[in-house]
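Suppose you are handed a protein chain with no further information: no name, no annotation, nothing but its sequence. What can you learn? This example shows the usual starting point.
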Amino acid sequence: MESTSLTSLVDDQLAEAREASSGRAAVTVFGGREHDLRQTLIALAAGRSLGEHEAPGEATLQVLLGTVRLTAGGDAWEGSAGDHLVIPPHRHDLHAVTDAAVLLTVASRA
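A reasonable first move is to predict its three-dimensional structure. Written in structure tokens, the prediction is:
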């Protein structure tokens, strides 16, 4: 059995995001090519965004730290630590209102 401290990963990735010119950092927590599920911890420095992009398939977002805003078309959702969202299946953007970390879970398309 494998165990990972998300708290430690958040601290590490947020430190990297603050130093990165893009203001973001990410690490795969679980999954990859041989799995049907992938979980990625994404850290964003306050005021930074991922930029609008296509939905990666069925996906959810769990806010681990801080506050983020997800926009998709004319809809917007703001969440903070402990909030969970099913990501809409179309173009969207994720913006960090404060320093933030999220856990993105993606199920691969069959």
